[in-house]
Design brief:
The protein is mainly β. The chain is built from 1 helix and 8 strands; from the N terminus they run αββββββββ.
Amino acid sequence: MNNWADGITTSLEGTRTLAGITTHLGPDSSTQFSLNDGTLAPGSYSYHFACRGDGDISMTISNAGAELTTLSGACSGDLQGGNFSTSEVGTDFVVTSMDAPVDVVLRVTDGLPS
């Protein structure tokens, strides 16, 4: 898993990673991973997300009690991404495995142009 996660992170060269998650989820372990990043200042950011395995996932980014972005569906191993903006310090990242074991990588970087 570490080699796969490192490959995902390496593909983001030229960006500065500000926060991130690398984890395994599924019925054999925990089915949900939550991270409250209390250091991410209000501003504009980009997320880069990939998962692999036979399961379905849900990934949510929230700030100030509001969902900013949600991804859900089958893991494909492909890198997905987008932009989000926060209004307060303290951003919540929640990744949930819906059924089968999955490996997950999430990286947050400075905002990329849309």
